[in-house]
Amino acid sequence: MTNEYLKRVYAQVEARDANEPEFLQAVREVFESLELVIDKHPEWEKAGLLERFVEPERVIEFRVPWVDDNGNLHVNRGFRVQYNSAIGPYKGGLRFHPSVNLSIMKFLGFEQILKNSLTTLPMGGGKGGSDFDPKGKSDAEVMRFCQSFMSELYRHIGQFTDVPAGDIGVGAREIGFLFGEYKKLTDRFDAAVLTGKGLTFGGSLARTQATGYGLCYYASEALKHLKNDSFEGKTVIVSGSGNVAQYAAEKCTQLGGKVVAMSDSQGYVYDPNGIDLPKLFDIKQKRRARISVYADEVEGAEYVAGCRNIWNVKCDIALPCASQNEMDEKGAQTLVDNGCMAVFEGANMPLNPGAIDIVKNNGLLYSPGKASNAGGVATSGLEMTQNSIRMAWSFDEVDEKLHGIMKKIYQACYDASVECGRPGDLMVGANVAGFLKVAEAMMAQGIV
User: Fold this and answer.
1) 106, 127, 251, 437: the active-site residue
2) 53, 69, 93: which is the final residue of a domain?
3) Number of domains present in the structure of the chain
4) In the chain, which residues have pLDDT < 70?
5) The whole model's pTM is what?
6) Contact 438, 118 (CB under 8 A)
C-alpha cells in the first residue's frame, strides 16, 4: 500500500487487533485493492469512512452452558459480529467449530459485507458461531446446545435486524433446533429470522445446493468470458466434503467436469474414475462418516492422510471448498507445476496471501470466495423474500434466479477490474465493486 490514508487506517487496525491474524489478512487484501480507487474519493477520508468500515457496529460474546447425555456440564463461547448494516439487515452464517474465535468471526463478517453487496440484494454483513464441535455429538446434545445458544442470541436478531444462517457445523438439523427455540422464546413465527430452514417451515428449495451450484455458475461464466472454455472434459479437485463441496462436485459433474478428489479434515480420497456422488452423499449426509470410508467401499479409490496434500493431485481446475487458509504457497505451486488453469474459491479465504500471489503471477484464472461463493447467501436472500411474501418458489425458479445473480456478480467483478485498469483481475474487481456500493450508502447516511 502506498496511499497514506489506507496505510494509516491499516496501521490502526494492526495495532488494535494485533492478535487477530485472519481479520488482518482480510482487511489487508481489501485495502490493497482499494488502492486503485482511493484517490478518486477524497471525501472518504474526511468522513472517516475506512475507520468506520473496518470496525464492527456491534460485537456480542456470550457463554453457552449445556449438558451432555451423561449429565456433564460444558461451557462454550458464543459470538455474533454485527458488522455493517448500511445496505440492509446484518446477514451471515453461524459456524460451530473448535477453531472459532473472535478473529475468525470478524474476518468472516468483514468478508460478508462485500459478498452480500455483490449479490445486489439488500443485506448487510454479519457472522457468528461458537467453538462447539457438533461432530460426535448425539442429536439430543446438539439440540440442548442449540437451545442454550439461542437463549442468548434471540435478543439480538430479527428479520429486519440480523438474519443468521448456516455455515460449517450448522446444517439443517442445527437450524431446525435454533428456529424452534427462537419461536418458543419470542412466541412468534418469524420465518425470515433464520435461513437454511427445512422446507416444511419456510425453507427454500435449492438453498442446500446454492453455494456449490453458484460457485460453478460463476466459474462457468469466468471460463467462458476470459478463457473461451468450460468445465467440459476438465479434471477437477474439490477440497472439503461438506455442503458446499458436495454440490459444487454435483454441478461440476453436470457441466461435464470430472471430480477426482475430495477431502475432509483428516485426509483426501482420489478416484481416477471420478467421485461416485451418490456414494459420497450417502457417506456424508446419511452416515456422517469420514471420507476414508469412500476408499474402503469404492474399488480403485485411494485414501491419503493429510487434507492439505490434496493439491498434489493433478487437475485442470481447483475448487477449494473447505476452510480458510487451506491452501498455502506449496499447494499453489504444486497446482501450477501440474498445469492447473483456474482456481475458484468455494470457501471463505481458502488461499493464503502467498498462494494467491503464486496463482495470479502464473496466469491462472482466480476468483475470491466473496464473489464465487456468494450463491449461498444470495439464495438465503431469496428465502427471506419468499418468507416475506408468504410464497414458495419451485426449485427451477430459485435455481434460475441464482444463476442470474451469479452471472451479474461475475459481470460486476469484471467491469470493476476494467475500470481499475486490471481487466480480468477478479479479486480486485470483487473488492472494489462490493465496497463502492457500501461506501455510497454509508456516505449517504452520515456519521453513524
Assistant:
1) 127
2) 53
3) 3
4) none
5) 0.94
6) no
